[in-house]
Amino acid sequence: MMRIAIFAETYFPFISGIVTHIQTLKESLEESGHEVLIVTASPKTNRHYVKDGVLYCPAIPMKRIYGYGFSNPLNLERLKIIREFNPDVLHIHTEFSMGIFAQFAARKLKKPIVYTLHTMYDDYLFYVAPHKFGQKMVKPAAHLYFRSTANKATEIIGPSLKVVEFLRRCGVERHINIIPNTVDLSDFLPQNVSPDDISSVRKTLGIREGDTAICFVGRLGKEKSIDTLIEFFAQNCKGNEQYKLFIIGDGPEKNNLARQIQDLNVTSQVKLLGRIEHASLPPYYHACDLFATASLSEMNSISMLEAMASGLYVLQRLDIYNKNQIEAGENGETFTSSKEFGALVFAQAAMTAEQKAERRERVTAFTNRYGKKEFVAQVLNVYERAIAEYKK
Asked: Glycosyl transferase family domain location, by residue (predicted)?
């Protein structure tokens, strides 16, 4: 039995792909007999406390990044709690105040660090430097920081080859373990979603028999290129009410996207549904026919996995470093232009009911390769190797 301390800048009640990933990792490790402590910053508390296996740490809210806070990275009270937990390995999932603290704690406790890189940070630099000139100034310093974080870790994990490409650009030459993201997909499988709930969602959203409904689920951030998705949709489907696009999520681009939808005159076909609780998401996926994304910042999208478990064929803007998540004809297709996007949407609409049902079954079956058992076995292997390496 191992004790694992997992460090992240944000955790529930805030929702994100990283949070969902950490929850799945925590549950999988505990089901395998290990003990887990999540250590996270919380802008909603002014004291350290542990509840349900989570250590919440006081933090200053970061207004520009929803759900994130900055916590004192050298806190001795927190170190005492970690020391009492006595972890065998410390696992960093975000690189900032919690990541810095994890490095501090690892030095004091003489324990190994495993570092998972979840984010292509070059796509997020505009949050700290809105202008391109500022981003050019910030990027070298950011690369130096991530190189330092990676080089201080005993082992590194990434969910796709895109991590290798990014860290090589940052100057990291070490071995990187590629372990695709997983998530508990059982709630999204067809047999576990009520047909009545699906019918209710379709009625609420105005999806009629014969319509082709497309959805995107994720944070409404600039890096997600949702504006490109809306533009491509409008260029191909504007004026044909048979086609609908539903965008689920919240974030800083919400108002800009609402203006874009209005300016393109597609308000009757493109809807911003806002944030929907994770437990309520399954029938929304099932009410749709396709999952589409124009984002080039993904590592291994968890919302995409949920959509696939729900049977949705994926239309993904081509990202050469992340293309292995799509197998053409099996779980989706890639597109590089508006014309290609439109052709894929129209191909879905032209299919017979039997062909659509067969496609959904095939896509759902594809997600078997992202099982929790396979995922946690690979992570545990990295933990064991990190512990052995540290003792040398």
From this structure: 201-338
For 290-334, the pLDDT digits (tens) are 999 999 877 778 899 999 999 999 999 998 767 778 999 999 999
How many angstroms from the chain centroid is the CA of residue 355?
30
Q: In what order do the strands lie in the sheet with 155-158?
A: 49-51, 54-58, 35-42, 3-8, 89-92, 113-116, 155-158, 177-178
Which residues, other chains included, contact 60 with Cβ-Cβ below 8 Å and sequence gap of 6+?
Answer: 43, 69, 70, 71
Q: pLDDT (tens digit, 9 = 90+) per residue, 55-94?
A: 999 988 765 555 566 788 889 999 999 999 999 999 999 8
Assign domain 3-182+371-391 to its CATH architecture.
Answer: 3-Layer(aba) Sandwich (3.40)
Whether domain 186-370 has CATH 3.40.50.2000: the reply is yes
pLDDT band at 13 (very low <50, low <70, confident <90, very high): confident
Answer for the pair 231, 256: CB distance below 8 angstroms, yes or no. no
